[in-house]
Design goal:
heterodimer; A: two-stranded antiparallel ribbon; 2 strands; B: alpha+beta; Ubiquitin-like (UB roll); Fumarate Reductase Iron-sulfur Protein, Chain B, domain 2; five-stranded mixed β-sheet; two-stranded antiparallel ribbon; 7 strands; 34% helix; elongated
Chain lengths: 162, 250
């Protein structure tokens, strides 16, 4: 990449030497009427509902991380012995934990939905019979696969828990 | 939505006159409008009848020159392809986001011109081809691989839609990367090795965080988000194949 116009740095609102150069003999900044204005980026994601949704999609990853931590704690408690593991299980059954899991379920559903929504753009085009698979088919297929996998997992866990 | 003819609309326009204004401000005019009037025609009405000092770019009036991009109610749009009948009462027209403002609705696009040049948006043949050898031939499938991306008119709506462009002004950006992908995907081209360093660079495709709004606002159905992400994949493949001595990037 060659050098990029320094004017494009956010917050750099004043006239730039780039534009003053080549105007010698006219006496500095006052002689140059060009004063490109750079608008600030602060609060950019609140300007458009599309960006709010994007930030919510990205933010949902924090909840995925939180749940991974809960599972990791369970694994550590398991390694510490039966009593420790049973304590972890009991903690999961507290009303606070159940409410948090309800919230996690909703956030996970949103996470899957929004990521599968952008998936057709982040993966290479899929061709079936020489034609490019429509975006809706990719998103729909992925959502169906996620729903089916969740259902299978739910049934298996329920059978094991009997 | 049906509007009666000869209704009027309040139009707020961003003004910035560098010789007298410290910062941009909004100026409101009332413009008579008809069912078939575009935002561009409203701007032209203002310039012709209300204030000749208003500055904006335009040329073809038919969504092919890519000159008249503005923010209409905060959304990047071609003003010639946006109609007053789709808005009620009052609209706001601002200079394209993420670019410095030269004057009123005119942006400074020098950085884009540099980025565009950096991706070498032309066919780089494997070997020189004499005129007698005739034209290059392509199958419909070979053409389909790049045709969509060749529809770009450099209108910069995708840059105004991309928060990463605003946050990291060095980012090569959606349109230039889509054109890079367009030429790399062309069976007549052998210049990928010269272009891939642009994809892998600090300012390259990995600045993209898959917001995806570029593809939403594109008036030509180019889908730059898809092109940028395919370029990411190509860059990763090239990087790892490099370890096997098969990289084509040098």
């Amino acid at each position: 990449m060659k050098t990029i116009d320094p004017l494009h740095k956010p917050g750099h609102a004043a006239g730039s030497p780039v534009y003053l150069a080549g105007r010698s003999g006219q006496g500095g900044e006052a002689a140059n009427p060009r004063r490109p204005y750079v608008r600030p980026m602060a609060g950019w994601w609140r300007r458009n509902p599309f960006f709010v949704r994007y930030m919510a999609r990205e933010g949902s990853a924090l909840f995925v991380g939180a749940y991974a931590l809960i599972l990791l704690v369970g694994l550590i408690r398991l390694a510490q012995g039966e009593a420790a593991f049973n304590g972890w299980l009991a903690a999961l059954q507290s009303p606070l934990s159940i409410a948090f899991h309800g919230l996690l379920l909703a956030v996970f559903a949103f996470h899957s939905w929004t990521w599968f929504e952008i998936m057709p753009k982040t993966m290479p085009p899929v061709r079936v019979g020489g034609r490019r698979l429509p975006e809706a088919a990719i998103t729909g297929g992925a959502l169906a696969a996620a729903a089916a996998a969740s259902l299978v997992l739910f049934v298996i866990v329920r059978e094991l828990a009997r | 939505m049906q509007h009666a003819l000869n209704e009027s609309i309040e139009i707020e326009v961003m003004r910035y006159r560098p010789e007298q204004d410290k910062a941009p401000f909004l100026q409101t005019w009332v413009v008579p409008c008809t069912e078939d009037m575009s935002v561009l025609q409203a701007l032209q009405y203002i310039k012709d009848h209300l204030d000749p000092t208003l500055s904006f770019r335009w040329s073809c009036r038919q969504a092919i020159c890519g000159s008249c991009g503005v923010m209409v109610d905060g959304i990047p749009k071609l003003s010639c392809k946006t109609f007053l009948r789709d808005y009620r009462g009052r609209i706001r027209v601002e200079a394209l986001a993420n670019f410095p403002i030269e004057r009123d609705l005119v942006i400074v696009m020098d950085s884009f011109m540099e980025k565009l040049e950096s991706v070498k948006p032309w066919i780089i043949p494997k070997e020189p081809r004499a005129l007698e050898q005739g034209e290059y031939r392509q199958t419909p499938a070979q053409m389909e691989a790049y045709a969509q991306y060749s529809a770009c008119i450099n209108c910069l709506l995708c840059y105004a839609a991309c928060p990463q462009v605003g946050l990291s002004p060095d980012f090569v950006g959606p349109a230039a990367l889509a054109l890079l992908h367009r030429y790399n995907s062309d069976s007549r081209d052998a210049g990928a090795g010269e272009r891939m360093p642009v994809v892998g660079a600090e300012s390259g495709a990995f600045h993209c965080t898959a917001v995806g709004y570029c593809s939403e606002v594109c008036p030509k159905g180019v889908d730059p988000a898809s092109a940028v992400n395919q370029a990411k994949g190509a860059s990763v493949r090239e990087y790892f194949l490099g370890f096997l001595g098969k990289g084509g990037g040098k």
